[in-house]
Here is the input.
Amino acid sequence: MLTPIVIVSGLFLAQTQTAGTPAPEVSVVPSVDLDRYAGTWYEIARLPNWFQKKCACCVTATYTVQKPGQLSVVNECRMADGRATRAEGVAKIADRKGPTSKLKVRFAPAILSFLPFVWGDYWILDLAEDYSHVLVGDPGRKYLWILARQPSLPEETYQALLRKAAAQGFAVERIERTPARQ
Here is the structure.
């Protein structure tokens, strides 16, 4: 069942731009094979954000290739009362000439897709060679996720990803681990 989280998730994407003097650009991996990236990812940790406040545990993101350069996105989680919530969206390569590691994501209704502010940045900052874990953020450094193909991640891998995020200027001291179960 679609909930207001669909629209709310879409609207957060408009918030990825920050005002003021731009910081050095966040760096991304050179390329991503979207066919290999497709599938289910478990959220291991995230920077707190308003559109996921109701997510108490069991956060997943499932990507399915729709056509070259475009993925469907289904984000799911369990709320504190045990109910599941879900948001459906679309991800696409941000620039056909640019790296496949810079995507734009939209959770707003498709009819609004012509509006640039409904698209948010989803940048792949680090990706395991075997596609077992990934570090995702945005150029404004407001959003950050550590995702893995399994519900848990070895501590040394988790710490290495935190160091990589910190080196790019993300506020890793604010990161919260995501419970795999409630």
Summary: Residues 76 and 86 are 4 Å apart (CA to CA). The longest helix spans residues 155-167. The two ends are 21 Å apart (CA to CA).
